[in-house]
Specification:
- 57% of the residues lie in helices and 4% in strands.
- By secondary structure, it is mainly alpha-helical.
- It folds into two domains: 94 residues, no CATH class; 37 residues, no CATH class.
Length: 141
Amino acid sequence: MTLNNCSSEPTVKAYLFKLAHELAYSEAEIRAGLEYADRGSRRSHPLGEWDNAGRFYAQERTLSVTTCRSPSKAWPYSQMVAARTAAHCAEVYKADNATHVGRIGRAYNKLLAGEDKDAVRRLLTKGIRKREAELARAPRR
């Protein structure tokens, strides 16, 4: 499957899913990466509630959200910012590696922007090389 200069979201998602699967990214990492990219570019928003003072409280209680500062008058969006991070999306989707989630998200945004497929492949291959090295060093059970 090639993009052929088509940058529609469904086409890009299908291409990225195929490429990431070829490079041994997990389903959870891919889904979390797409969500991370969407949240970062405001195509989707974290679930949560607003109080009367305009503070946002995230509904997804992950480590990223619980360890950030509490929303206040001075910092009303602290939990919203935390809920847009790669680490938060990785935890929500139960992905093993937040770095890989971030790489998938960056690759998705690059493809939507029409950047070169080879550059995207190089970006994603970097993460796999490290993963293969870690798996080779790990003791076998």
